[in-house]
Amino acid sequence: MRKIREVLRLKAEARLSDREIAAAIGSARSTVQECLRRARAAGIAWPLPPECDEEALAAHLYPHAPTPARYPTPDFATVHAELARKGVTRMLLWQEYRARHPDGCQYSAFCRDYDAWRGRQDPVMRFEHAPGDKLFVDYAGLTMSIVDRASGEVQTAQIFVAALGASSFTYLEATLTQTVADWLGAHVRAFEYFGGVTQVIVIDNLRSGVARACRYEPDLNPSYQDFAAHYGVAVLPSRVRKPRDKAKVEVAVQGIERWILAPLRHCTFFSLAELNAALWAALERYNDRPLSREDGTRRSRYLELDRPALKPLPAQRFQYATWKKAKVHLDYHVEVERRYYSVPYRLIGKTVDLRLTRHMVEVFYRGQPVATHLRQDGPRRFNTDPAHRPERHRAVIELNHERLLERAEAIGPATATVLREQVHRRTHPDEALRTSLGILRLAHDFSTGALEQACTHAVELRTYSYRAIRALIVAPPAPAPESSPTPAHDNVRGARYFT
């Protein structure tokens, strides 16, 4: 259109010949003549009206003549909806179309036109990823086999893939399962491979990452939430059945499958470590491959873009923990693998959250920590913090002769002597606990002075029971009368007479 406007201008203002105009714009004379003929036929003259832009000029000079349809056009909206149903194929829909329109298109044209229609309905958005912003993770569709050298048993290994958004720098690792432990362990090693942490992780909706999928508020797995909090990253689950939300890792998976997994398909691996060693060696070559549409390699772009923008790794490596719910028993303990850990007794009957690491058991109630214990592996089954017991239970547990004797000595030596005699006169020391408690209780019922005086009499009388001491307090013995000296007489025989 720019050249056509120049042809009209030169013809009207400069009054050049057709040959001169063709030389000026670098076109054939016949092209200039055809352009002027179409302008006369459309009634267009220079200068063009202001509303006549390039699109309007093209419409006037080259009006579109609709071509007659060679065959009835299929209803591709209906075709698209039908393909979403299980068991429905393009071939089946084409056969139904030909049954209705015998003069319809062939199968290849049916598929071509449908793909063109779908492309117009769902245009692709191209994202620009900021350096160090997003990490895309997923598992590859292909798996690798590990053979047990002794038994010959074949085990399938899953392939974890992670790709940075800006540089497409890629990490992969083989894991035996897709469970939470393997999933999080692969994340930790991926961050360590990249040498830093991104702002966001974009994941698929697998169960190890998302407990409940939702378009608007997905629920993350609690262990994955711990991981995200430890590294200070946000987790964005992609929409269900929307692979374009994580197109970066989908392309990375495709490249990994083509350039790493497929070349290793004939190799035999006898351990997970052996498989990962081969994968990581191939990964270095993959990241150093020149990019087809951009300059440099994934590694060079990573060093230029992502590496400077990544957040530093935390000082401590993430420690994997599992979460479970438990109900507090009547003895204010919760059970973990047939071992019991105490919680505050006020939570009896409540449901608490347990965070279990290799060495610790942490108990949370309504998001707040309420107890922490070292995880027990030996024969000990109960791990009880005395602070978790009710006061009356602590009083019973802490009851012993040493504590009672300290209280008795504070009252007086006679009271302490009575308590020692209680222990010595019993078959088992614990039999004296209740009696000793009763004797000390008398200091509260009466007074410490009265108890000490009664115990002094009890020691003289060699009676140490609770009833005797109480009787001595209620009815203390009368003081003995003072005795007069015996007069000297020949008939009075002293004690020496009988020895």
Quaternary state of the chains: single chain
pLDDT averaged residue by residue? 85
Q: Report the major sheet.
A: 6 strands, mixed
Number of helical runs? 18
Q: Give the full name of the CATH homologous superfamily of the largest domain.
A: Ribonuclease H-like superfamily/Ribonuclease H
Assigned CATH architecture of the largest domain = 2-Layer Sandwich
**What is the rounded Rg?**
47 Å
* Uncertain stretches: none
Task: Give a description of the structure.
This protein is an alpha+beta fold and 499 residues long. It has 5 domains: 2-61, Arc Repressor Mutant, subunit A; 76-121, no CATH class; 134-309, Ribonuclease H-like superfamily/Ribonuclease H (Nucleotidyltransferase, domain 5); 322-390, no CATH class; 399-474, no CATH class. 42% of the residues lie in helices and 15% in strands. It has helices spanning 2-14, 18-25, 29-42, 54-61, 76-83, 90-100, 107-121, 180-194, 222-231, 247-261, 272-287, 298-309, 391-397, 401-411, 413-424, 433-445, 448-461, 466-474, and strands spanning 134-139, 144-147, 154-164, 170-175, 200-203, 210-212, 219-220, 234-237, 322-327, 333-336, 339-342, 351-356, 360-365, 368-374, 382-383. Strands 1, 2, 3, 4, 5 and 8 form a 6-stranded mixed sheet that branches. A 4-stranded antiparallel sheet has the order 9-12-13-14, with no helix packed on it. A 3-stranded mixed sheet has the order 10-11-15, with no helix packed on it. α15 (413-424) packs across α17 (448-461). The termini are far apart.
